[in-house]
Amino acid sequence: MLAEEAGLSERMVARLLKAEADLSFGAWRQQVRFQSAQDLPSGGQSVSEAAFAVGYQAVSSFIDTKKNSVGRRHKQ
Question: Is the pTM of this model over 0.70?
Answer without folding.
Answer: no
